[in-house]
From TrEMBL:
Residues 186-212 form the C2H2-type domain. This is PR domain zinc finger protein 10. SUPFAM superfamilies: SET domain (SSF82199). It comes from Tauraco erythrolophus. Residues 38-152 form the SET domain. GO terms for molecular function: zinc ion binding. The keyword DNA-binding does not apply.
């Protein structure tokens, strides 16, 4: 105790306990990598305060949008199995390895994407390229829709899994019908101009980069 100059076990009976200041709680690495137009939602709370999470779109995401690569640790054994997530493997240096994500501090946001149970709810395909795994959208994803993934056809053969086929969708994202929530426009952070799609915003931002 600095007030009475004594070394004590526990609190000082004369001057009382220390006021404990806790460190600020920061998000995990995986949560910090989440793109700004995606959000995590708690879908279920299980025993032991275990949260079942899903990744949802906040704005319209165009077809053929690529995410990745998936961040995980190469392992000969799968140390963490979740029946709601895809098992991922890659071919590197002639060997087949699992892409293992033991905890949120070792991976990126893609570890939260749940697998698609059928063709109707699938919005992403997982595929392997140069020893990395990427996700790509197979149709336009509307706001408040959960991103769900299954293997692409070639990757399904590699994983010895069945393929889920997605029927071809129009490249044009449908306009929201009357009664649905309005879709927020994409806003440029530099000049505050707004655009109807993410692709238009990306093209516009290239102009700012060229000027710089």
């Amino acid at each position: 105790c600095e007030d009475c100059g004594k070394s004590l076990v526990g609190e000082c009976k004369l001057h009382g306990p220390l006021i404990r200041a806790k460190d600020r709680v920061i998000p995990s690495r995986a949560r910090l990598t989440l793109p700004h137009y995606l959000t995590l939602r708690v879908l279920e709370l299980r025993a032991g305060n275990q949260q079942i999470l899903g990744v949802f779109a906040k704005k319209v995401i165009q077809k053929r949008t690529q995410f990745g690569p998936y961040v995980g640790q190469l392992s000969t054994k799968l140390t963490r199995y979740d029946e709601s997530r895809l098992v991922l493997q890659v071919l590197k240096d002639g060997g087949k390895y699992f892409l293992d994500t033991p905890n949120e501090d070792c991976g990126n946001w893609m570890m939260f994407v749940r697998l698609a149970r059928n063709q109707e709810e699938q919005t992403l395909v997982a595929y392997q390229h140069c020893g990395e795994v990427y996700f790509a959208t197979v149709k336009p994803i509307e706001p408040h829709t959960e991103l769900k993934v299954w293997y692409a056809a070639d990757y399904a053969k590699f994983m010895e899994a069945s393929a889920v086929f997605i029927k071809e969708e129009s490249d044009v994202c449908p306009l929201p019908s009357v009664g649905k929530e309005p879709v927020d426009p994409w806003t440029c952070p530099s000049c505050r101009s707004t655009f109807a799609t993410f692709a238009l915003l990306e093209s516009h931002q290239c102009i700012h980069k060229d000027r710089v």
